[in-house]
Amino acid sequence: MERWWQYLTPGPAQLSTGLACLGVGMQSGRLPMVGPRALEHWVAVVVTSGRGWFAGPDGVRQPVRAPAVLWLRPGVTHHYAPDEGGWAESFVDFTGSGTVGYAELGLLPGVPVTPLTGAEAAQRVIGRIAAACRRGGPLVGAEATAGVHELLVELRRHRADLDLDGEPVLEVLRRDACLPLSIAQHARRAGLTVAELRRAVRAVGAVGPKEYLLTVRLNEAKELLAAGELPVAAVARRVGYEDPAYFTRLFTRRVGLPPSAFRAQQYRGEDPGEPYGPERGSAEARRATR
Questions:
Q1: What CATH number does domain 2-157 carry, 3.30.160.60, 3.40.50.720, 2.60.120.280, 1.20.120.790?
Q2: Distance of CA 206 to CAs 94, 102, 106, 289, Å?
Q3: What residue spans in the chain does CATH classification 1.10.10.60 cover?
Q4: pLDDT tens digits, one per residue of 134-190
Q5: CA 72, CA 35: separation in Å to the nearest integer?
Q6: Residue 132 has pLDDT above 60, yes or no
Q7: How far is CA 211 from the centre of its chain?
Q8: Is 183 helix (H, G, I), strand (E, B) or coil?
Q9: Whether pTM exceeds 0.90
Q10: 78-95 and 68-72: which strand pairing?
């Protein structure tokens, strides 16, 4: 049996970021049974070889076969162990208010065991977290926490229990996002019912199609505003909103400032001192006559 681990104690500043790594470890062989117990924080246990079982609060055992992740949720009783042949696992403990958002994004699943298509990418990330902990130093907490974020993304990316048929649907939505279409019209263009569209998008993106389309539209609007060549009304039409006032209210609510203020801050054109919109052309003409 081989075992190594190291724990961290994040301070108030690290905890205030919303995510903090509490520890990392690696062990293999005929490991002892864990639990029943409940923790006050999250743990991702990545089983890289071997098999065993996992039981939640109901005590019912479900099989675990590598590669897979055991998600130990705060306050939820769990109980698990490898079979007699043992297994190899790596684990990362983490906490923070930001885990609520990670769960909403689908990076922290609601099921306790998720199979993986492969664990190599996750293992590389865990190796970097472990290396940071071994080095120590003033940045260890930030380095390890950055690794936790990357780990959650990799584990989500390599889940084997998700329906990957949703990926082409996202491509269609991304392509048509800025067309002035309803969700029902988007569904028809994808050859799906609205319910099928919602299921397909949530399976790969954790958010619904309306939220996904809104994000794509706002990202495009920001790029157009930063270029500074179009009036706000024209930007609104480009991203699918015929009513510029509605677009402005929506943009302000989601971004935190109006489109015009965003452009004033983020303008990436050649001459930020020149006016925008129709006045820009006359300004360029004036320069040409000097």
A1: 2.60.120.280
A2: 21, 10, 5, 55
A3: 166-266
A4: 999 999 999 999 999 999 999 998 998 876 555 778 888 889 999 988 999 998 888
A5: 11
A6: yes
A7: 14
A8: helix
A9: no
A10: unpaired
User: Do 115 and 81 contact (CB within 8 A), yes or no?
Assistant: no
Asked if residues 110 and 73 have their Cβ atoms less than 8 Å apart, the reply is no
Cα separations (Å) of 50 from 20, 29, 83, 91, 107?
29, 9, 8, 15, 24
List pLDDT tens digits, range 245-274: 999 999 999 999 999 999 999 987 665 454
Domain with CATH 2.60.120.280 in the chain: 2-157
Residue type for 228, please? G
Per-residue CA distances from 109 to 56, 105, 161, 197, 287 (Å): 14, 9, 11, 21, 58
Q: What CATH architecture applies to the domain 166-266?
A: Orthogonal Bundle (1.10)
Average pLDDT of the segment spanning 112-135: 96
Q: What is the pLDDT of residue 276?
A: 42
Q: Which of 178, 252, 245, 244 is nearest to 213 (CA)?
A: 178
